[in-house]
């Protein structure tokens, strides 16, 4: 069981943004942007590689709802999912990072040397 399952079950508290029967959105404990929300399905899915199109359809609509609720639909935001160990995934329960609230830096990726990643 991951820490996110404990959050879903209410065993660990979270700073909740939005919830329905299938999905939960809450503030990341270590924010990387002025607004940094984690969006997760309540069913246990390890990561993006494992998720079904049906779950993704619901997750997409829920993510759009969260972005609108927080006003991020107006100026934009970044959506990231880390997949597996090479992708930097630490919690093995599918989650999307919704980042916004400022013009986000992209320079470390836009002009980087691919060799620096290995
Ligand atoms: P990842 O590296 O993509 O697996 O991201 C995991 C994220 O979970 C990190 O950004 C952490 O800061 C965040 N995190 C870990 N534990 C908690 C928690 N109890 N409440 C909120 N966010 C958490």
General description of the model:
There is one protein chain. The chain is α+β, with helices and mostly antiparallel strands and 118 residues long. The protein has helices at residues 3-8, 53-69, 72-75, 107-110; strands at residues 16-19, 23-27, 35-41, 78-80, 96-100. A five-stranded antiparallel beta sheet has the order 1-2-3-5-4, covered by helices on one side. The termini are far apart. The chain binds adenosine monophosphate. Adenosine monophosphate is lined by residues 3, 12, 14, 28-30, 38, 82, 88-91. Residues 3, 12, 14, 28-30, 38, 82, 88-91 line the site of adenosine monophosphate.
Number of helices: 4
The global form is globular
Overall domain count: 1
Task: Note poorly predicted spans.
Answer: none
User: Span between N and C termini?
Assistant: 31 Å
String of helices and strands: HEEEHHEEH
* Largest β-sheet summary: 5 strands, antiparallel
- CATH homologous superfamily caption: HIT-like
Strand content: 15-25%
Q: Indicate the mean pLDDT.
A: 95
**Class by helix and strand content?**
alpha+beta
Could you outline the blueprint of secondary structure elements for this entry?
Layout: H1 3-8, E1 16-19, E2 23-27, E3 35-41, H2 53-69, H3 72-75, E4 78-80, E5 96-100, H4 107-110
Antiparallel strand pairs: 1-2, 2-3, 3-5, 4-5
Adenosine monophosphate binds at residues 3, 12, 14, 28-30, 38, 82, 88-91.
Please outline what is shown here:
The protein has 118 residues and is of the alpha+beta class. The protein has helices spanning 3-8, 53-69, 72-75, 107-110; strands at residues 16-19, 23-27, 35-41, 78-80, 96-100.
């Amino acid at each position: 069981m991951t820490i996110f399952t404990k959050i879903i079950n209410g065993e660990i508290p979270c700073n909740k943004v939005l919830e329905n029967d299938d999905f939960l959105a809450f503030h990341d404990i270590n924010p990387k942007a002025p607004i940094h929300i984690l969006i997760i399905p309540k069913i246990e899915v390890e990561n993006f590689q494992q998720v079904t199109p049906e779950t993704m359809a619901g997750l997409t609509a829920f993510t759009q709802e969260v972005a609108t609720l927080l006003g991020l639909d107006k100026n934009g935001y970044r959506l990231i999912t880390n997949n597996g160990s090479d992708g930097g995934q630490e919690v093995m329960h599918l989650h999307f990072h919704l980042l916004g609230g400022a013009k986000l830096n992209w320079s470390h990726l836009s002009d980087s040397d691919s060799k620096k990643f290995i």
